[in-house]
Design brief:
- This protein has 22 helices and 17 strands.
- The protein is an alpha/beta fold and 524 residues long.
- The protein has two domains: 22-254, 2-enoyl-CoA Hydratase, Chain A, domain 1; 277-441 and 476-509, 2-enoyl-CoA Hydratase, Chain A, domain 1.
- Strands 10, 11, 12, 13, 14, 15, 16 and 17 form an eight-stranded mixed β-sheet that branches. The protein has a seven-stranded mixed β-sheet with strand order 1-2-3-4-5-7-9, sandwiched between helices. A two-stranded parallel ribbon has the order 6-8.
- Helix 5 runs parallel beside helix 6, helix 14 (345-360) packs parallel to helix 16 and helix 18 (442-449) crosses helix 20.
Length: 524
């Protein structure tokens, strides 16, 4: 058997010519440049695709495309595959389209033919209604091709926008990504970066220093930590390229192929009726005592597994995917461990972006509420918390997927309204017995409402404690909200998982008829 494989059958001259052309194109920038890529700790363009997709599933498109430009000696150079590998494959048995920029060929620079290869595979993804994954490793626009390279970028940007909300779009930054090149990933749904090797920026450190006098390096300007923790540009950070591809495969498993389909269900791995003593313990904590919201999410999720999105950014709100009874569910949750779970500018934008994605791709939303309000201060007001905080409200109001809400502890003021309350069309709203739903916290309310009485009291602190208890019982308990129908049921914390699963099962056939219009005007 091995002898037969070793011997290639005789081929015609024309077939041999094809094989030679194919081998030359597949060789990329040649042995030396491929070796340099390896020495930098990076895979080659083709190795990356093979590492991400199912075995023996990649079919290449446009292998033999070459640049048409002749200026600056380009007509005398051979640019293998014009610096980008494109095609289609399978991930977890499901089809995707993929492109992988080849840094060994002119630094992966983008010329017109390079761009049109990417455009063709994006068009294929839209036509076939499958996700598209871009593996970016490029020095930017090919200067030798001038405005044609800029036109190529714009063609890609246009397709990113057309595909938005129609098919999932994922970008992995696996090297440099600078200038106009950053806007294609920015228009996609999720960005992955690799710690230590990925960099994104509009202008490099030298230009920054010349323009502003600020000194920085590639990492502090546009590294994975910077964009995952400070700017929020990237949603996922990987320790290596292999880890990056593992995470992409895991993410795709939670998503549908397109906006017309439901996410693929997994075989149920956990008892849908499972109760949780841990949730009872959390519900019995002192109101001012913080806890990690992940502990609640893990208890609710199948197999206690949570695939978090934007883990390092705006940690006062937590977003990500879980499975419940095998079905994909998007979770949005306040995190009392950071800023007491209050909403600020970054948290509002992070939550809104995630909600918009889930709504576009038919992923039901579970909202876990423990929010004292919006974070106060000059920085927030001057930064536009009114305008930018409204994005979260807009996203929840617009979302037409099934929406289940659980008020865990605090739900104060406008933040109560915003976090998928019944008033903005949460479908099924639960509350734990310890929940406090009110205009503001009892302490603050008593200070305002009974200011005069407290000033005259013989023992102000004793009287304050009495008034706080009275206010809490009358205005801040979940039973007041339940009495008005704003909470559908007050539930034991231990029953949260089975209650949510039953609600989501019931809501699976939900249909919403929207007002006929072109589109709304989200407060950007």
């Amino acid at each position: 058997m091995s002898d037969k494989k070793a011997k290639r059958p005789l081929v015609s001259p024309k077939t041999q010519a094809l094989l030679d052309k194919r081998a030359r194109a597949e060789a990329g920038g040649g042995p030396e440049r491929l070796a340099a890529q390896k020495a930098a700790g990076k895979m080659t363009a083709r190795e990356r695709i093979e590492a991400m997709v199912d075995d023996d599933s990649f079919e290449e498109v446009d292998l033999l495309v070459e640049t048409k430009s002749t200026d600056f000696g380009l007509d005398k150079k051979y640019l293998a595959a014009d610096g980008v590998v494109t095609g289609f494959a399978r991930v977890n048995g499901r089809p995707i389209c993929v492109y992988s920029q080849d840094f060994s060929v002119m630094g992966g620079s983008l010329g017109l033919s390079h761009a049109m290869k990417i455009c063709k595979v994006m068009d294929l993804a839209i036509t076939a209604e499958v996700p598209v994954v871009g593996l970016c490793d490029s020095g930017g626009a090919r200067i030798q091709e001038g405005v044609e390279s800029l036109g190529g970028y714009a063609e890609i940007f246009y397709r990113n926008v057309q595909a938005s909300g129609y098919i999932p779009q994922i970008s992995a930054i696996l090297g440099p990504c600078a200038g106009g090149a950053v806007y294609s990933p920015a228009l996609t749904d999720f960005i992955f970066m690799v710690d230590g090797t990925s960099h994104m920026f509009i202008t490099g450190p030298e230009v920054v220093k010349a323009a502003t006098g600020e000194t920085c390096d590639f990492e502090s300007l546009g590294g994975a930590d910077t964009h995952s923790r400070l700017s929020g540009v990237c949603q996922f950070v990987a320790g290596s390229e292999s880890d990056c591809f593992r995470q992409i495969r895991e993410l795709l498993d939670f998503l549908p192929q397109n906006c017309h389909e439901q996410p693929k269900a997994a075989m149920a791995s956990d008892d849908p009726r499972r109760e949780s003593e841990a949730l009872d313990r959390i519900s019995e904590l002192e109101p001012k005592k913080s806890y990690k919201i992940h502990e609640v999410i893990w208890e609710i999720a199948d197999g206690h597994r949570f695939f978090e999105v934007h883990r390092n950014f705006a940690r006062n709100i937590v977003c990500g995917f879980i499975r419940m009874d095998g079905e994909s569910v998007g979770v949005v949750a306040n995190n009392p461990q950071v800023l007491s779970g209050a909403l600020d500018i970054d948290a509002s934008e992070k939550g809104a972006r995630f909600i918009n994605f889930c709504d576009a791709f038919n992923i039901p939303l579970l909202t876990l509420v423990d929010v004292p309000g919006y974070w106060p201060g000059l920085e927030q007001e001057h930064g536009g918390i009114i305008r930018r905080g409204a994005k979260l409200l807009y996203a929840f109001c617009r979302a037409s997927v099934p929406k289940v809400t659980v008020v865990l502890r605090k739900a104060y003021g406008g933040a109560y309204d915003v976090m998928s309350s019944k008033h903005i069309r949460g479908d099924v709203n639960f509350a734990w017995p310890c929940a406090e739903i009110a205009v503001m916290g009892p302490q603050g309310a008593v200070s305002i409402l009974y200011k005069t009485e407290l000033a005259k009291a013989a023992d102000p602190e004793k009287r304050r404690a009495e008034l706080v208890r009275e206010y809490t019982a009358k205005f801040a308990s979940p039973f007041q909200a339940a009495k008005h129908g704003y909470v559908d049921e007050v539930i034991e914390a231990r029953l949260t998982r089975p209650k949510v699963i039953r609600a989501l099962r019931f809501l699976k056939g939900k249909k919403v008829v929207s007002l006929p219009k072109k589109h709304g005007n989200i407060p950007l």
